[in-house]
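job 3f2a | input accepted
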Amino acid sequence: MNHDQENHTLRISIEEEMKASYLDYAMSVIVARALPDIRDGLKPVHRRVLYAMYDLNNIKSKPYKKSARVVGDVIGKYHPHGDTAVYETIVRMAQDFSLRYPLIDGQGNFGSIDGDAPAAMRYTEIRMDQITEEFLTDLECDTVDFVPNYDGSLKEPRVLPSQIPNLLINGSTGIAVGMATSIPPHNLTEVVDATLALIANPELKIEDLFAYVKGPDFPTAGYLYGGQSIRDAYSTGRGSVVLRSKAEIEIWGEDRERIIVTEIPYQVNKAKLIEKIADLVKSKKIEGISDLRDESDRTGMRMVIEVKKSQNAQIILNQLYKFTQLQDNYSINLLAIYRGQPKVLNLKEILWAFIEHRKDVILRRTLFKLKKAEARIHLLEGLKKAIEHLDAIIACIKQSSSPQMAQNQLMLEFNFTQLQAVAILEMRLQKLTGLERDKILEEYQAILKAIASFQALLKDEALLYQTIQTELHEIKRKYADERKTKIIYSNNLDFEDEDLISEEETLVSITRAGYIKRSDLSFFKSQHRGGRGVQAVSPGEQDLVTAIYRCNTLDQLLCITDQGKLYSIRVYKIPEVNRYSKGKAVVNLLSLKGSEKIKAILPVRHFPENTYICIVTKKGIIKKMPLSEFENVRSSGICAVSITQEDELVAAKLTHGNNDIFLCTQQGMSIRFSESDIRSMGRTARGVHGMDLGENDQVVAMEVLQPDTASESFEVLTITEDGYGKRTSLKDYRSQSRGGVGVISIKARNGYVLGSRQVLPENDVVLITNKGKMIRIRVNEISTQGRNTQGVILMSLTAGEKIVSFECLTAEEVLEAKEEVSSSPEE
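job 3f2a | predicted structure (827 res):
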């Protein structure tokens, strides 16, 4: 190396050079590849594809062109990258499950939601979709800047003069260096309405825009869960929402259920989703699925998940939500290129940036048209003047020896400009006819009006915004459609979410062997008193039902065991089966310890402060506790009452502090006293004496009487195990002090007393026997008798058959059932 070379050697730090080079690379990726421009919502590759198609006149009204032709133009003229990347961009813009409003109309195989690859570019054909032409409208009117392409041989637009707020309606995803964008698609109608509202009142707050933009609207539809999360994302530019599939549970066969999935979350691969479900079934992480198949066709999506007999489809669906992409999170990051730099923007900033873009486009378009109109009016003024001096001008031209001389003479004698003189010389003779001369004058007047309108628009900002609004109204008229994604305004996405459960009345029954099930009320039609009932469990079963409870699928069952512990389970988690099935073992639903058995079940929905649980044992011990203490019951249970070994839990009821308590004994005695006689106690307390029992007698039931006991309609329904029963006016039972012996309620000659209920004549009552039969009869068919009587036959029993439990249905439930009374005592 010579001395001169040494003097020109530049020493640099490799660390600094690496930093600078990497920063240049990062900015190139951010600005020129990965992030969309806030104005047209397009990345450079998308913009170049559309501009290449515009160059080829590959529009909706023209025939399709081979995809390979367009890809060749794009990579040859504007985008010096791989043809595969460009074709993948084209494919995505043609997929109706990828873009909310596809920009390319494709013909051929462009892939599927199952992840199937598209056909090669030499086989597929494309053209612009109709909406895409709105991106390129007025491109030739100097509305946007053009920049040199990669080799400087051509020009390409820096941004498109889009009339569509594309950044929001189609969204965008991209990963740059150190940052990423994830903008969900939206409904065009909502976005346009929000833009119009913001133009009308620029002072609108982001919260005001929520009235127009409800939330993202995905091409694959489904459900979007979010309330505050959506607002946070629009306010800060960052957030997350939950997407759920559209899944419905339907009954098929006699007592089987299946889940039908017709919509899945955005960007979820259906084939991989089905594969994941199958893997969960094989690994037994999800049990209860008997079959899984894809019945999708060109008319729409349909995934069928068949549920095993006696399984609860809703619970399985909740498990699928938890373990698969039937429920998926979508992260929102409103990052875009704004004024040449990446920036996270809120909803209002995005809309206003689009408005500013349209304002700039319309101003530039107006200036372009104004200049063009002024140039044309200049020529028309010359032609108009020429027509007025036609003979003289013709003579001047005839006397000229050359065109140049004629041009000079016209400019000299008639004061024409050079452009006007040339136009007059090039004018065809047909323009001299009367009709053509009128057309020139008409055009002259029309252009004068156009110039006036252009100048007015340039001077009046209000008129400019009005033009933007007019164009947006036209866009809405042409492309408006209904929202696809349904928004559920809830941030509670626990997999026991009550929003997922259909609310309906049901009967829950439990057997002596500890099996529990749900039964539809419609299984049991009303029969006349004295009927034999219908079979409620399989005739071959040796087990028997010991209790039934009327409740709602959304209720929470507080189950109290013989050892005084309380467990909790949602009603819908109990399998709903036909009336012949024995149900599912309680130990599989609750974490019972050892020999614990459920003795009382209490259906509740809410846990208000002024509500109590009242518990009674067979020895007449009664206890009252605040219901709110049992709102959060751990899976291992919680102590509800201390019970001695000689005693046993009989019943549990809800009270409201102002009720009367009615206790009924096995031998037909009863007592009525005020709830105020019982103080509220802690969970471990034993309780107080509620009734003084006779020899060999025990409490079998407790009823909480409604406060309005003055009504003559209220009665006490008492039923014995041999199928006898009667109604007695509530007025026949005077209120006493707690701890008394009570009064006779029924002559217990026909078996032990099962219990008493407060009823109205319009109620129904459901009875169940130890042989699994149920009967449902109208209360008004049961005779009204005094206290000291034995009642009438309610149900015809066979040898060895006994009534083991009964439950009353309210008047509203009877009305909702809409069942006709059977004309025969037998089903």
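job 3f2a | The first strand starts at residue 65 and ends at 66.
job 3f2a | closed
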